Amino acid sequence: MATDRDTVLEAAVGVLSRRPTAHLDEIARAAGISRATLHRLFPGRDALIREIGLLGLRRFATALDTAVVEQGDAEAALRRLVDASVPDATLCAFLAGENQLYEHEDINDLWEVQIARLHALFLRGQQQGVFRIELSAAWLSEAFFDLVAGVGWAIQDGRLAPRDAAFSLAELFLGGALRRPDVRTPAPLAGSTTTPTHSTADHRPDTDKP
Questions:
Q1: Three-state DSSP class for 25?
Q2: pTM of this structure
Q3: Which residues, other chains included, contact 34 with Cβ-Cβ below 8 Å and sequence gap of 6+?
Q4: Among candidates 88, 82, 65, 84, which has minimal Cα distance to 166?
Q5: What is the pLDDT of residue 3?
Q6: Can you list the alpha helix ranges (DSSP code H) found in the chain?
Q7: What is the rounded average pLDDT of the residues 196-203?
Q8: For the ranges 13-17, 74-78, 86-90, 97-101, which has the lowest average pLDDT?
Q9: Cα–Cα–Cα angle for 61, 53, 67, rounded to 5 degrees
Q10: Which residues, listed in sequence order, are joined to residue 178 by a DSSP beta bridge?
Q11: For 147-198, how does the pLDDT look when each residue is reduced to its tens digit (9 = 90+)?
């Protein structure tokens, strides 16, 4: 029977997310295949990591498509995206934590496409009066993706039950992102600028650039 590449990649990310230096033998065992079969599928550790990254980006793109993020009320679209992205939160965690991925131009190009769609969702929400305007759309995009990644790590470590993940993510993020008409936007501190700071996930491309 043919080996399903995506199944092997999912097994690999389950191991590597917990132990980034895990040997390929351990990854092969987790996937239920031999080291030789793993090598035939992915000729080396670098190739394996790159393919996991590509799988994660494809899955996140599918989540954006499923949620139809370009249409309708922005809050409703974001809630749909939460539901669509949580099942692959572990892959998002890998994307957020594996610096080596972003040495590949194709990975960076795919990341730019997906984060631009997320950025556009938050910008539309700000224009609709849904999301806070004192937080940049670029920062909201980074923060949302990193929270999805955090859900992946928490589920894997047993700190969050999968059945609670979508609710926990939506409530935590929207609790800070939704615009509250009765709360004034704070004035900038003396000497500060209004330029938003970047996410701590600075291995990813700068999405604040025009």
A1: helix
A2: 0.80
A3: 28
A4: 82
A5: 61
A6: 5-16, 24-31, 35-41, 45-67, 74-85, 89-97, 105-127, 137-156, 162-177
A7: 38
A8: 97-101
A9: 15
A10: 131
A11: 999 999 999 889 999 999 999 999 999 999 898 766 444 444 444 343 433 3
Strand partners, 193: none
Residue type, 176: G
Token pair listed for 199: 């996410």
Distance of CA 17 to the CA centre of its chain: 14
Q: Which two tokens stand for residue 78?
A: 């974001």
Q: pLDDT, tens digit, for every residue of 26-51?
A: 999 999 999 999 999 999 888 998 99
User: How far is CA 194 from its chain centroid?
Assistant: 26
**Phi-psi region for residue 52, left (φ > 0), alpha (ψ -120 to 50) or beta?**
alpha
What is the rounded distance in angstroms from the CA atom of residue 82 to the CA atom of residue 80?
A: 5
Q: Which amino acid is at 145?
A: F
Mean pLDDT of the chain: 84
- Which two tokens mark 12? 């690999």
Tell me how far apart the alpha carbons of residues 67 and 82 are, in angstroms, rounded to a whole number: 8
- CA atoms within 13 A of residue 41's CA, in its CB half-sphere: 24
Which of the 8 DSSP states describes residue 183?
S
